[in-house]
Amino acid sequence: MTNAFLRRTAVTLAALLALTLALCSGAFAGTTLYSGKEKPKYVFLFIGDGLGLPQLSAAQFLFAASQGKMGEDKLLMSTFPVQGITTTYSAETAITDSAAAGTAIASGVKTYNAGIGVDANKKPYRNFASMAKDKGMKVGIVSSVSLDHATPAAFYAVSESRNAYHEISHQIATSGFDYFAGGGLIDPDGKKSKAPKGNAFEAIKGAGYSVVSGRAELQKLTPKSGKVMAMNDRLPDGNALPYAIDYTPNDISLAEFTAKGIELLDNPKGFFMMVEGGKIDWACHANDAMAAIGDLVAFNEAVAEAVKFMKKHPKETLIVVTGDHETGGLTVGFAGTKYDNFFTVLQGQKVSFQHFTDVVLKDYRAKCGGNFNFEDMKPIITANFGLKFEGDAAADRTVLKDFEIAMLKEAFNRSMGGETEKSKDEMTYRLYGGYDPLAVSLTQILNQKAGLGWTTYSHTGVPVATAAVGLAAETFGGYYDNTDLFKKFCSVLGIATEPVTLAAN
Ligand SMILES: [Zn+2]
């Protein structure tokens, strides 16, 4: 290409771009707000962390394939009458983190990644959950991850950093909200804080909350119990609920926490409840499609509880389901499978990458006493992931090819050698992303055999789907930014739709 060509092309492109901008900037400007007289009394916001269209699509293809059908068998959100597309970029990057995304949705301002309830200049803002509380509505915050994690925190806390878990958890006590449920707290004692404020659970109890753990205690709660913080007994990683694929009968599901929330929050002045499916994201960070789909199913069951409630209050309920960003760069399609998919291959997976790392591999390490041998691992892999070492790979998609076995053997050796640290060199990072090398290789190979590809261990910058049903649902159609979700919710709740700063402290 000559310089003249490049110059000419640049001029033409610039002219086209200018024309396009002129055409678009005027057309249909501004986001749809709700102006109806009747405001919904019961408002639900479900956030699938890391839930983009690829996660939804892969799950829906698998559900259909598992019944021998082509096409997508829809989750509830896909059946909602109003569908929107929501952009997710942060103030500084095309790829947001959960803190900036949560802040955009809850407070209506763009911020840097890690900011909770502050704008890009660290100026604090109010979230609309607290404004709903001021209106007399009850407020519930439910998450499958710890309650001081970025997404739930954006709905009750202000913090310059999402990592200030201790300071964030103390804001549960001062929120005045009615129901916190799901995971626990990461730093209740302030071990990582420069200025510990004392045990956060004690502070929460001191503010009048009943703090309970386990199903028996959860079931005892009634609308007369007052303010509540409820957790699952078992919080195996990061003080979060287990992955749904690893649930045991004693584990409280996201749907159970949601149903209890509805029971406790129901009152004549109405309520707002935010429910987060937080581990869809964690599974996608680890490139584990089946763990993500399991948590998406658990999330869908929580949405079903709201739909059940809406059937009793059809004219007074609004349900909105969205994602805060896509995670993993998942797609339906992979180089090795071209135009084909073999979704049901995924069903051979019985445990999450996390359970495989923390329980199965830990047990093996303890038993082998340093004498590790890949031959021992083969039946363990087949039992947990359905991948076979013998057979005709052309006829049976679950049979591993020689190069896949070589990749697993290499990963096994690194795994047994203790290589689980955030990989220092880029080549190793690209292979394993800082996860257990064998666990992450197994889910990647299984996913690839199903025809699913991953591009990153982080988030991506593509927009997400937002779906709505019920009174004022039409407000949520269109292509709009995540900060517009704040405005839309404010208009639905009958409060001013511009972001509100908090007095500087
Ligand atoms: Zn997120």
TrEMBL record:
<dbReference type="GO" id="GO:0046872">
    <property type="term" value="F:metal ion binding"/>
</dbReference>
<dbReference type="InterPro" id="IPR017850">
    <property type="entry name" value="Alkaline_phosphatase_core_sf"/>
</dbReference>
<feature type="binding site">
    <location>
        <position position="151"/>
    </location>
    <ligand>
        <name>Mg(2+)</name>
    </ligand>
</feature>
<keyword id="KW-0597">Phosphoprotein</keyword>
<feature type="binding site">
    <location>
        <position position="49"/>
    </location>
    <ligand>
        <name>Zn(2+)</name>
    </ligand>
</feature>
<feature type="binding site">
    <location>
        <position position="459"/>
    </location>
    <ligand>
        <name>Zn(2+)</name>
    </ligand>
</feature>
<dbReference type="InterPro" id="IPR018299">
    <property type="entry name" value="Alkaline_phosphatase_AS"/>
</dbReference>
<keyword id="KW-0479">Metal-binding</keyword>
<dbReference type="Pfam" id="PF00245">
    <property type="entry name" value="Alk_phosphatase"/>
</dbReference>
<comment type="similarity">
    <text>Belongs to the alkaline phosphatase family.</text>
</comment>
<dbReference type="InterPro" id="IPR001952">
    <property type="entry name" value="Alkaline_phosphatase"/>
</dbReference>
<feature type="binding site">
    <location>
        <position position="49"/>
    </location>
    <ligand>
        <name>Mg(2+)</name>
    </ligand>
</feature>
<feature type="binding site">
    <location>
        <position position="149"/>
    </location>
    <ligand>
        <name>Mg(2+)</name>
    </ligand>
</feature>
<feature type="active site" description="Phosphoserine intermediate">
    <location>
        <position position="98"/>
    </location>
</feature>
<keyword id="KW-0732">Signal</keyword>
<feature type="binding site">
    <location>
        <position position="325"/>
    </location>
    <ligand>
        <name>Zn(2+)</name>
    </ligand>
</feature>
<feature type="binding site">
    <location>
        <position position="276"/>
    </location>
    <ligand>
        <name>Mg(2+)</name>
    </ligand>
</feature>
<feature type="binding site">
    <location>
        <position position="285"/>
    </location>
    <ligand>
        <name>Zn(2+)</name>
    </ligand>
</feature>
<feature type="binding site">
    <location>
        <position position="281"/>
    </location>
    <ligand>
        <name>Zn(2+)</name>
    </ligand>
</feature>
<keyword id="KW-0460">Magnesium</keyword>
<dbReference type="GO" id="GO:0004035">
    <property type="term" value="F:alkaline phosphatase activity"/>
</dbReference>
<feature type="signal peptide">
    <location>
        <begin position="1"/>
        <end position="29"/>
    </location>
</feature>
<keyword id="KW-0378">Hydrolase</keyword>
<feature type="binding site">
    <location>
        <position position="324"/>
    </location>
    <ligand>
        <name>Zn(2+)</name>
    </ligand>
</feature>
<keyword id="KW-0862">Zinc</keyword>
<protein>
    <submittedName>
        <fullName>Alkaline phosphatase</fullName>
    </submittedName>
</protein>
